[in-house]
């Protein structure tokens, strides 16, 4: 007889006793015998009362999504199984043989019987093994196929890739993914039989389409063993299940013994695309995540920094996000230690975080050296902080470019709430042979690179603003006054805004002068009257430029008509 009713205590107790010395109901692997007994149970057995049955129940439940793929006879019920149905030959003497023991007799008859039983069991095992469906090793891959540039015909590329046809190869779904600068890559799923096709052969054939393909990478790989009746297309449909149920499970039962499962599905972590990780370089030496961070910074408003001997001017174009926005309420140029200004173009939260970091560095410097932090040291520390975010796969680079401008002076400038009020002349005071004080302007990039400039720009209008700055004679700082720098900064913002075609902008403008200048060495906003006058002059210059362009175009049209 088989198991009694498994929804009663006697049945569960029999099941628990059966599983005390084995991992499965029948043989040494998961089969339909386990499925039949599992379905006969109304709920999970108590782990405290039936630890072996509870351990077995949880293990079988983890394979429920793939019950149909488990080998075995599905027509049998739980009553067809049980420990009593397994014949266990006895080789010990019977009770009636106690007086007939011959210690010097021959045991050839017992050896022959044991050999016969062993051969019979071996033959039965071979028959059962031959009857089982043969498992086929298959793999589900996710490939990234990258083109040469943004001019590559992606439709033709996909047609060429799918044109590869092999026995044991099935193409799955695909999609185009933008990777930056107008370039998209093809990501495609495919299923292969491991014994018939090599993954490297597929990649080599894809990369042979040199007209379209620059490179290919395997970004996902799942190895599975399934029966011969399973279709290749069914594997791709079950891919999320395979990944979910291939993770390591932990059984907390004290007497649980690990055992092997016949369902072998494991997720293999292998090399991903060079643009998916921040901690690796591409073969040509690129860190693509840094490149993408630069692109993010170029989506922000245009910011400008101009340095002259009289001071530093910082300007920022802020795009109005709503008609209800209050002008001047959302400040984007931060002050650090009173004598330094920081403006960021790119992701606004990243910029705010960087400004707070600058203030922490300034406060730490004051507590240590009892003096304001020099602009050069602050810029260097911010660059180092940004560079740390380019070295780990668990971090991403800052999506901003930061312009740092300041005026260092040998005069003592107190800052409310800070420790110390000494001159901003470097750690430990003045050093022999080192020049202190003056105006400074730096820009820190997402890579962590920090360079000094007489004039620099960032944001969406960076290229236009940079071209305008290069027209000015800024080198040396003695050919431009601070007021002229204010007017030029506003004018360049207007020129860059015209090219970007943004509507509804707000201008934020700050400056820092030397101690004998209008701000007395402090970073403050440019007075409203001066800012409005600079904007009026910039708008007038823009109108005159537009009229000149109209006259030039009209003259060209007249010349064409005369011809």
From TrEMBL:
Pfam families xref list: EF-1_beta_acid, EF1_GNE, Proteasome, Proteasome_A_N
Domain Proteasome alpha-type subunits: 274-296
Annotated Basic and acidic residues bias: 522-543, 552-563
Top-level division of the source organism's lineage: Eukaryota
Region (Disordered): 517-563
Keywords, ordered alphabetically: Elongation factor, Proteasome, Protein biosynthesis
Gene Ontology biological process terms, A to Z: ubiquitin-dependent protein catabolic process
Entry annotated with the keyword Nuclease: no
PROSITE patterns registered for this protein in UniProt: PROTEASOME_ALPHA_1, PROTEASOME_ALPHA_2
A GO cellular component annotation in the UniProt record: eukaryotic translation elongation factor 1 complex
PANTHER family: EF-HAND AND COILED-COIL DOMAIN-CONTAINING FAMILY MEMBER (PTHR11595), ELONGATION FACTOR 1-BETA (PTHR11595:SF21)
Family to which the UniProt record says this protein belongs: Belongs to the peptidase T1A family. Belongs to the EF-1-beta/EF-1-delta family.
Protein name, entry field: Proteasome component C1
Species this chain originates from: Cordyceps militaris
């Amino acid at each position: 007889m088989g198991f009694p009713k498994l929804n009663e205590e006697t049945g569960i107790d029999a099941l628990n006793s059966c599983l005390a010395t084995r991992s499965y109901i029948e043989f040494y692997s998961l089969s339909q015998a386990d499925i039949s007994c599992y379905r006969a149970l109304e709920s999970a057995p108590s782990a405290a009362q039936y630890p072996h049955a509870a351990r077995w129940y949880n293990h079988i439940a983890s394979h429920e999504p793939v019950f149909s793929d488990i080998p075995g006879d599905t027509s049998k019920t739980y009553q067809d199984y049980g420990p009593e149905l397994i014949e266990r030959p006895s080789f010990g003497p019977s009770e009636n043989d106690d007086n007939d023991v011959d210690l010097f007799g021959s045991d050839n008859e017992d050896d022959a019987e044991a050999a016969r039983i062993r051969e019979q069991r071996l033959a039965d095992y071979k028959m059962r093994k031959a009857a089982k469906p043969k498992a086929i090793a298959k793999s589900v891959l996710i490939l990234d196929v990258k083109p040469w540039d943004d001019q590559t015909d992606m439709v033709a590329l996909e047609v060429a890739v799918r044109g590869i046809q092999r026995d044991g190869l099935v193409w799955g779904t695909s999609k185009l993914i933008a990777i930056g600068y107008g370039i998209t890559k093809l990501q495609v799923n495919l299923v292969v039989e491991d014994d018939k096709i090599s993954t490297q052969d597929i990649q080599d054939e894809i990369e042979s389409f040199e007209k379209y393909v620059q490179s290919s990478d395997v970004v996902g790989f799942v190895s599975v063993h399934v029966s011969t009746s399973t279709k290749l297309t069914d594997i791709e449909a079950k891919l999320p299940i395979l990944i979910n149920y291939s993770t390591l499970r932990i059984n907390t039962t004290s007497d649980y013994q690990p055992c092997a499962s016949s369902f072998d599905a494991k997720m293999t972590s292998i090399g991903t695309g060079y643009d998916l990780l921040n901690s690796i370089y591409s073969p040509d030496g690129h860190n693509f995540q840094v490149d993408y961070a630069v692109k993010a910074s170029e989506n922000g408003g245009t910011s400008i920094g101009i340095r002259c001997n009289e001071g530093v001017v910082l300007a920022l174009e802020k795009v109005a996000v709503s008609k209800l926005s209050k002008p001047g309420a959302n400040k984007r140029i931060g002050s650090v230690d009173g004598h330094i200004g920081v403006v960021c173009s790119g992701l606004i939260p990243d910029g705010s975080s960087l400004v707070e970091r600058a203030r922490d560095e300034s406060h730490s410097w004051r507590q240590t050296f009892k003096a304001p932090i020099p602009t050069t040291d602050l810029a260097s520390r911010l660059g180092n902080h940004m560079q740390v975010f380019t070295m780990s796969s668990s971090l991403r680079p800052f999506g901003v470019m930061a312009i740092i401008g300041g005026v260092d002076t040998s005069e003592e400038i107190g800052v409310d709430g800070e420790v110390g009020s000494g001159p901003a002349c470097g750690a430990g005071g003045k050093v022999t042979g080192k020049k202190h004080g003056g105006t400074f302007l730096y820009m820190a990039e997402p890579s962590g690179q920090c360079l000094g400039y007489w004039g620099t720009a960032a944001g969406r209008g960076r290229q236009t603003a940079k071209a305008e700055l290069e027209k000015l004679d800024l080198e040396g700082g003695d050919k431009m006054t601070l007021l002229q720098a204010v007017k030029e900064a506003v004018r360049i913002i207007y020129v860059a805004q015209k090219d970007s075609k943004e509507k509804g902008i707000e201008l934020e403008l700050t400056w820092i002068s030397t101690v004998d200048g209008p701000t007395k060495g402090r970073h403050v906003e440019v007075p409203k009257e001066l800012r409005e006058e600079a904007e009026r002059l910039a708008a007038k210059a823009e109108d005159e430029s537009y009229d000149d362009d109209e006259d030039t175009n009209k003259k060209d049209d007249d010349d064409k008509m005369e011809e």
